[in-house]
Amino acid sequence: MTPPTPLHLSLAGQAVDVLREQVLTGEIPPGSRVNEVEVAQKLGISRGPLREAIRHLASEGLLTLVPHRGAFVPDADAEDVKALFELRTALECAAAELAASRRTDVDLVRLHEVCAESRSNYKAGQPFPYRLDLAFHQTLLDAARSPHIAEQVRLVQQRVVLLRSALEDDPPHQHASMDDHDELVKAVADGDAARASTVMRRHLSRVCAQMMASLNH
Amino acid sequence: MTPPTPLHLSLAGQAVDVLREQVLTGEIPPGSRVNEVEVAQKLGISRGPLREAIRHLASEGLLTLVPHRGAFVPDADAEDVKALFELRTALECAAAELAASRRTDVDLVRLHEVCAESRSNYKAGQPFPYRLDLAFHQTLLDAARSPHIAEQVRLVQQRVVLLRSALEDDPPHQHASMDDHDELVKAVADGDAARASTVMRRHLSRVCAQMMASLNH
DNA sequence: AAACTGCCAACTGTCGACAGTTGACACGTT
DNA sequence: AACGTGTCAACTGTCGACAGTTGGCAGTTT
Fold first, then answer.
1. Are A87 and B55 a contacting pair at CB < 8 A?
2. Which of these three, B72, B101, B125, is where a domain ends?
3. Which member of A100, B125, B140, B200 has the lowest number of beta carbons within 10 Å of its beta carbon?
4. Range from A124-128, A166-170, B2-6 that averages highest in pLDDT
5. CA atom of B174 to C1′ atom of C13, Å
6. Could you tell me the CATH number of the domain that includes residue B111?
7. Mean pLDDT of B129-147
8. Nucleotide whose C1' lies closest to the alpha carbon of residue A47
9. How far is CA B69 from CA B32, B63, B111, in A?
10. pLDDT of residue B119
11. Is-contact A203 A174, C-beta < 8 A?
């Protein structure tokens, strides 16, 4: 059934994927500890690969390691969110600038598609799904064509998702976000790097404030 | 002599430090492979902790993992340098902006000290040591008071150091760098975030060009 | 002689077991 | 009753050994 390394992914790699999923979905709730023997048995693997998986997720910021105590799912306060968004702003503003100067027509089509889908969903009474927000930022990132920045944004995004569990999206915020996205696309289409950066900064500032507000009850 | 976890650092943690040193100093040259059993014996530890150390360094970008082949010290070409500096520019420009708005008088004193030491060394006929360049950027980073950005810059800096082995510092470049540093300090002292960002971008652009030139023989 | 095939050593991926540390509970003391 | 102490179970850190895969080499074929 499970030969050591059949063809594609090592046990450690599979464990990384499974654990990441469980942490991001909250199946393993923030603040809880990850028991090595217990999880290893549940995944049907040994402690060795699982340990590697845990360390990997810790390097991504999805787990925090305490010597001789184990790995914990971090639960953040408003202060952490603010600090994290400083990094995200630095990365995504730079990405927005690069996208404005490097985007192709295909990139613009994709960006318009995502924005249009968000609008239609919203007008149909559906809430603006976080999935589409992620898709927009990912598409913009692809247009920037900077693999290292993209990789770092991916890691930060993950951590934001981890903290997003308690976030109740309210309609005003959703509307403002979609407006920001549209404005970003316009700036990128015009090749206006400075404006793209400015709009992105304002957008992320808004999102950050929203998250901090919902974290403070 | 070596109980499992004597008091402070795990064997894996120690191995990380030793290996990082060996990789950054070029003791383990770029392109070479890291043999697990060999290095483990040389460090007097088992393969388990060493594997964790290897994975950790890989997550920092100091090693690249190839399934079933092992870990290699990456040797980069000009294209990689350019891509890496896009990330570094995004991070350090943001840090420069934050430093301009958050710096205290103590930060300014420290920045002036580093610049002064660089100048005096240079005028004494000594080459501008890379150590002082790192110190300057680190001091500026401290003034920005953004731990996440600082951590990411540290990782990128490491990778730059890894590629720096073949870099011959020529006096014109050193002089220009010191001028950039002085100009940065002025902007930070004035609290001029926009100017700090601009100067930092120009500075890193110069350093990047210098590195790419020396990589192309 | 060049290309293909089968074998082999070296190394990574994985596992189970042992040793040391940590936090907690129970007990005794002040 | 509150505090300090000793003991203990649970867990992490570490180790040595086995299984599977990879790349290279020798031998054979065309």
1. no
2. B72
3. B125
4. A124-128
5. 48
6. 1.20.120.530
7. 94
8. C15
9. 12, 13, 46
10. 86
11. no
Q: Rounded distance, CA A214 to CA B80, Å?
A: 41
B16 domain-assigned:
yes
User: A143 with A64, same domain?
Assistant: no
Residue A2 lies in a domain: no
Strand, coil or helix: what is A76?
Answer: coil
Which bases of strand D have any atom within 7 Å of the beta carbon of a protein residue? 11-17, 19-23
Using CB atoms, which residue from B51, B90, B147 is nearest to A94? Answer: B90
> Which amino acid is it at B138?
Q
Nearest residue of B to residue A150 by CA position?
Answer: B87
- Considering the domain architecture, whether residues B27 and B113 belong to the same structural domain is answered as no
Whether A52 sits inside 8 A of B56 (CB atoms) is: no
- Give per-residue pLDDT as tens, A24-59: 999 999 999 999 999 999 999 999 999 999 999 999
Q: Which domain holds residue B42?
A: 11-72
Give residues with Cβ within 8 angstroms of B169, minimum separation 6.
B127, B128, B130
Give the DSSP letter of residue A145: T
Would an 8 Å CB–CB cutoff place B79 in contact with chain A?
no
Residue A158 lies in a domain: yes
Cα separation values, A1 from A44, A96, B124, Å: 11, 47, 70
Nearest residue in B to A151, CA atom: B87
Which is more confidently placed, B154 or B76? Answer: B154
Q: How many structural domains comprise chain A?
A: 2
Residues A94 and A187 reside in one and the same domain: yes
Residue B6 has pLDDT above 70, yes or no: no
pLDDT tens-place string over residues A150-186: 999 999 999 999 987 666 667 788 889 999 999 999 9
Provide the residue type at A60 as one letter. E
Contacts of A53 in chain B (CB under 8 A): none
Are A110 and A27 in the same domain? no
Last residue of a domain, one of B72, B100, B117: B72
Instruction: Report if residue A156 sits inside a domain.
Output: yes
* Same domain, residue pair B52 and B97: no
* Strand D close residues, chain A 12-71, CB < 7 angstroms: 33-38, 47-48, 51, 65, 67-71
pLDDT at A144: 98
